Amino acid sequence: MNSIIHLLPDHVANQIAAGEVVQRPASVVKELLENAVDANATSITLLVKEGGKTLIQVIDNGLGMGDTDARLSFERHATSKINSADDLFRLHTKGFRGEALASIAAVSHVEMKTKTEDEDLGSHLIIEGSNIVQQEPCVTPVGTSIAVKNLFFNIPARRNFLKSTTVEQKHVIDEFQRVALVHPSVAFKLVHNGSELFNLPAANHRQRIVGVMGARTNEKLVPVKEETDLIKLTGFVGKPEFAKKSRGEQFFFVNDRFIKHPYLHHAVSSAFEGLLKDKAYPSYFLYLQVNPQSIDINIHPTKTEVKFDNEHSIYSILRSSVKHSLGQFNVSPVLDFNKDSSMDTDYVQHKTRAKIPSIDVDRNFNPFEAEKESGYFKKNTGSFQSKSTANWESLYTESIDGDDTIMDIEVESEQISPSLFQGQEKTYQSSGTFQLQRKYIITSTKSEMLIIDQHRAHFRILYEELLKNITAQPALSQQLLFPLKLQLDSNEIRVFKILKESLVNAGFSISELGEDFVKINGIPNRLPESETSILLDQLLSDFESDIPDSGFDQTDRLAKSLAQSMAIKNGTLLQKEEQTELVNLLFSCKEPVLTPLNRLVFVKQSAADFDKKFM
Ligand code: ADP
Ligand code: MG
Q1: Cα 361 to chain center, whole Å?
Q2: Which pLDDT score is estimated for 505?
Q3: Ligand 1, atom nearest to 104 Cα
Q4: Which chain residues have CB less than 5 Å from ligand 2, an ion?
Q5: pLDDT at 298 over 80
């Protein structure tokens, strides 16, 4: 019988293997940067176009390669880094498999120029889908420049699978940051589509972290240091009060490799126990050095997992060192969740003379009465703007023209809920409402009782309204007397730029966008000023960790985040008229049943249900 098994042609085998190493542009970035570091470069530049989909180029001033090595480097299992299996346990380089360049070359167009110090001329290679189509001597500085173009040109299915430029760019930046954070003595530069995103001079660890994460990071860092027989630990943790609502700033490096390790992450998180606000994640930049023989990194090249021999001991050491650092730097629990904003002295104080404080007692004050009884909801729905708010008038501006804005507000409310002002045509006929535990609005139709979650209902109402505003018309914006200045790190600035247009349409007015700050002089008119920075912080970190692909997704997510923050909270007392208003607005929504996050807004009980209960 004829044999039916045959060896795959090289280019097919290479493509298959390449799939393992090269999943997206960021994988190429990681491999090329690590090769440059392995080649002892002191300065590395990464040039990227369209999130790496059209170009990824790494230029280093490292050792370079001679003619033969230059050609060999693209062969599978060609490496200068190990000779025998034993070497795997003495690794001090990033690479060791000799697979990366072969894999990259199998699925892209590669151009390399490289030269060693000893040679006068370097080599210039052009490789397309594993074939060397040109190699000739060239004039080039010592070091290596590799340009990878048209990734996955020969695997359309993969190419189509790539995400938007924004998403791929985000992955590229992640990889860049990981490599840059662990090699502070190497200067790094990242240029995307011609604009310089990072320019990091050689520095120490702390300076590098600040360079990568933004100037604001410096004051947040608490050093961690510990040395035992098992591990040497250095690095920093973020002070708890700066903890973010995203996981973006958590970095473990083991023997100079970025790793993810849920168990060790838990060790750090548990050291922060009791110090963090709800849903906040600690940031950390921790560098662990362990005996290479005590870990197994001989795993999948794109994975970031590591197996330790002594996991439990490392857990305890990590936890106690972080705890110790937090304690030593006197980082005590932050309990003032609702700091009184009147305590903030943000304006020029020195011009005003000091006054002798007078004692002012509100004899009618009753601590058991709700603080926000006087119509919190009014301020936040806009629908209740009465003429008595006339002195606020000047603070409202329409982004498009300067019409009487109070009028506009009413016109707008009419559009949202025609029912409200044309009593006859109400889609929903309320027969009185009742608030239960400052959380539920109870109302009834002819045959049913409705129990409505007030926060969720308002969330739905605001969401639909915002969606319309962001996509169709600029929203009303509330002019701030004193512009709000937010310090942002480089990632946040990047996300902010992506979101800028949508934010403007949602009612934010941005007066200045600097390298590490943004000045906001107008906010959506229902957004309490005191919540603005928290909201934006949250918004940026949401988007930072996961940038939506399409414009619509972006608008949708923005509307959800904004609406959720702006919606009345449970625990807020609502006046009768506000309750009715809420119910009316809810039932003029397109989708009143569910919140934008698909949670039930209300439940129903029919009279028949009650009949059964009373049987
Ligand atoms: P690995 O890094 O696992 O050895 P690669 O395919 O990434 O495998 O690289 C193959 C070889 O090419 C390396 O071992 C190294 O000798 C050489 N090489 C790759 N990139 C560079 C570079 N930027 N400078 C000098 N030599 C390089
Ligand atoms: Mg390599």
Answers
A1: 46
A2: 82
A3: 6
A4: 35, 95, 100
A5: no
Can you read off the two tokens belonging to residue 571? 């625990």
Compute the distance from residue 71 Cα to the ligand 2 centre, in Å: 15
pLDDT digits (tens, 9 = 90+) for 173-215: 999 999 999 999 999 999 999 999 999 999 999 999 999 998 8
pLDDT of residue 549: 61
Using DSSP's 3-state secondary structure scheme, residue 154 falls into coil
For the CA atoms of the chain, what is the radius of gyration? 30
Give dist(CA 492, CA 509) in Å, integer. 17
The reply to whether ligand 1 has any atom less than 6 angstroms from the CB of 71 is no
Q: Which ligand is nearest to the CA of 34?
A: 2
Beta carbon of 321 within 6 Å of any ligand 1 atom: no
Give the torsion sign (CA, 127, 130, 135, 139).
Answer: positive
261-293, pLDDT tens digit by residue? 888 998 999 899 888 877 788 999 999 999 888
H or E element at residue 531: helix 529-545
Contact assessment for residue 307 and residue 271, using Cβ atoms and an 8 Å cutoff? no
Regarding beta strands 284-290 and 250-254, do their DSSP bridges make them parallel or antiparallel, or are they unpaired?
A: parallel
Which is the closest atom of ligand 1 to the Cα of 36? 23
Which tokens in the block code for residue 1? Answer: 């019988």
Give the mutation target among 73, 127, 298 for probing the ligand 1 site: most ligand atoms within 8 A of CB: 73
Q: Tell me the pLDDT band of 297, cut-offs 50, 70 and 90.
A: low
Place of tokens 């590591």: 306
Rounded to whole angstroms, how far apart are CA atoms 554 and 496? 12
91: Cβ below 6 Å to ligand 1? no
3-class DSSP state of 604: strand
Please give the distance, rounded to the nearest whole angstrom, from the Cα atom of residue 98 to the centre of ligand 2. 6
Q: Ligand 1, atom 19: nearest CA belongs to which residue?
A: 35
- The whole model's pTM is what? 0.62
Distance CA(500)–CA(513), nearest Å, equals: 10
Neighbours of 338 (CB within 10 A): 6
| Ligand 1 pocket, mutate which of 101, 114, 127 (most atoms under 8 A from CB) | 101
Chain segment 61-115, per-residue pLDDT in tens: 999 999 999 999 998 777 776 666 666 666 667 666 678 899 899 999 999 999 9
Q: Which of 20, 27, 28, 35 to mutate to test the pocket of ligand 1 (most atoms within 8 A of CB)?
A: 35
> How high is the pLDDT of residue 211?
93
Considering 10-19, 191-200, 335-344, the range whose residues carry the highest mean pLDDT is 191-200
Query: Separation of 329 CA from ligand 1 center, angstroms?
Result: 43
CB distance 52 to 25 below 8 Å = yes
> Which of the two residues, 417 and 557, has the higher pLDDT score?
557
Q: What is the pLDDT of residue 366?
A: 54
Distance 146 CA to ligand 2 centre (A): 12
123 in contact with ligand 1, CB cutoff 6 A: no
Helix (H, G, I), strand (E, B) or coil at 582: helix
Q: What is the pLDDT of residue 423?
A: 34
Between 382 and 182, the higher pLDDT residue: 182
Residue 481 Cα to ligand 2 middle (Å): 55
**Interval between CA 30 and ligand 2 midpoint (Å):** 9
List the alpha helices (DSSP H) in 5-94.
10-21, 25-38, 67-72
